[in-house]
TrEMBL record:
Belongs to the class-I pyridoxal-phosphate-dependent aminotransferase family. It comes from the Bacteria. GO terms for cellular component: cytoplasm. It comes from Glycomyces terrestris. Keywords: Aminotransferase, Pyridoxal phosphate, Transferase. This is Aminotransferase class I/II-fold pyridoxal phosphate-dependent enzyme. The keyword Transferase applies. The lineage of its organism: Bacteria, Bacillati, Actinomycetota, Actinomycetes, Glycomycetales.
Length: 392
């Protein structure tokens, strides 16, 4: 077949996924078209802390603009290891237990490609971040949903045990959980750990919202539980904690044997990225506890503002224990289909939200829940609520 022929241009290519227009792309376009307040997509409107930005700028001016070492610059790996030790008592090795990635998304993809073989199954808490399914399928595996059901959105451990079979390779755990805001408690983590140990499963845990846990609760990494360190890869990210989502600096930590496998894949994905940003995040992770406390307090205030405002408009609000998202049901407003509701909102109200159904294995099945974010300034949240009040 000649290169560039019509047949070549239209042929079906192998692979688990094709480029597609996602709901996030659609909602961004609608937001722009209608001048809508974007309360759907999870990126802050504010820039990161000044000392973090200045550390990245200083790195650029000092000429640190070439490829970093593939596992990440030493200063950042040291900062990540210190963070895990100081917050959770974990001890990843700076040289062999930490790898810096192009955001948590690359860490997830690299982990799935490292550990999942064709025909393997990965059990994941559903609803789930959309890259989970894509990453598992890229590795030739199949994702098995472990549903968190409304209104509690708590994990059913008996159901998890029933889902695990001889094809199960690993458990993909997300806490604090996007989009529901559930934070797994100690008993739930111990139940997951027990199943992982009994069935000899690997665990990959997405903890990017670790510093956004409300109401006096605390985040506990499953890797800290007995029997879990040697079988767990822990994924983190700076984007959410320091409001620099565009920098795309994430990481994976854990025992050397597992992190080495992740590095072996990561070198053929991005190899390395964001050298000056890595220095910025090294400075960020050195921020004192006062920063984290103020950060949490600010988001707790915004959470309460949005949750109370949505409830006052008639939504059923599921108050999040963590993350910067609120799941709310539009059913009391007469909508059983969150997708239809969200597609109407930009024109009707000048507001954008995301339908939760896109976070399910079957995104075509209508669900009334929608996701709003409160990672916006108070004035933006108030404007969004006022537009919803007038439009609804």
């Amino acid at each position: 077949m000649m290169a560039g022929s019509a047949k070549e241009a239209t042929m079906e290519l192998p692979g688990p996924a094709k480029p597609q227009t996602t709901i996030f792309t659609v909602m961004s376009a609608l937001a722009q078209r209608h001048g809508a307040v974007n309360l759907g997509q999870g990126f802050p409107d504010e820039s990161g802390p000044a000392h973090v930005v200045e550390a990245a700028v200083a790195a650029m001016r000092e000429g640190r603009n070439q490829y970093p070492p593939m596992p990440g610059v030493l200063e950042l790996r040291q900062a990540i290891a210190a963070h895990q030790r100081d917050w959770y008592g974990l001890e990843p090795g700076v040289e062999d237990g930490v790898v810096v990635t192009a955001g948590a998304s690359e860490a997830i993809a690299a982990a799935m490609l490292a550990f999942v073989r064709p025909g393997d199954e990965v059990v994941a808490m559903e609803p789930f971040y959309d890259s989970y399914k894509a990453s598992v399928e890229l590795a030739g595996g199949a994702i098995v949903p472990w549903p968190l059901e409304a209104p509690e959105f708590r994990p059913d451990l008996d159901r998890l045990a029933a889902l695990v079979n001889d094809r199960t390779r690993l458990l993909l755990v997300n806490s604090p959980h996007n989009p529901t805001g559930t934070v797994l408690d100690r008993a739930e983590l111990e139940g997951i750990a027990r199943i992982a140990v009994e069935r000899d499963l690997l665990v990959v845990t997405d903890e990017v919202y670790e510093h956004l846990v409300f109401g006096g609760r605390s985040h506990e990494p499953i890797a800290a539980l007995p029997g879990m360190w040697d079988r767990t890869v822990t994924i983190g990210s700076a984007g959410k904690t320091f409001s620099v989502t565009g920098w795309k600096i994430g990481w994976a930590t854990g025992p050397a044997a597992l992190v080495d496998r992740v590095k072996g894949v990561k070198q053929y994905l991005s190899f390395a990225s964001g050298t000056p940003f890595q220095y910025g995040i090294a400075a960020a992770l050195g921020s004192g506890r006062d920063y984290y406390e103020a950060y949490l307090a600010s988001y707790a205030e915004r959470r309460d503002l949005l949750a109370q405002g949505l409830a006052g408009l008639g939504f059923t609000v599921y108050e999040p224990e963590g993350t910067y998202f609120i799941t709310a049901s539009a059913a009391p407003l007469g909508y059983g289909d969150g997708m239809a509701f969200c597609l109407e909102l930009p024109e009707r109200c000048g507001v954008v939200a995301i339908p939760n159904q896109v976070f399910y294995a079957d995104p075509a099945a209508p669900r009334p829940e929608v996701r709003f974010t409160f990672c916006k300034p108070r004035a933006v949240l108030e404007e969004g609520l006022e537009r919803l009040r007038k439009g609804l």
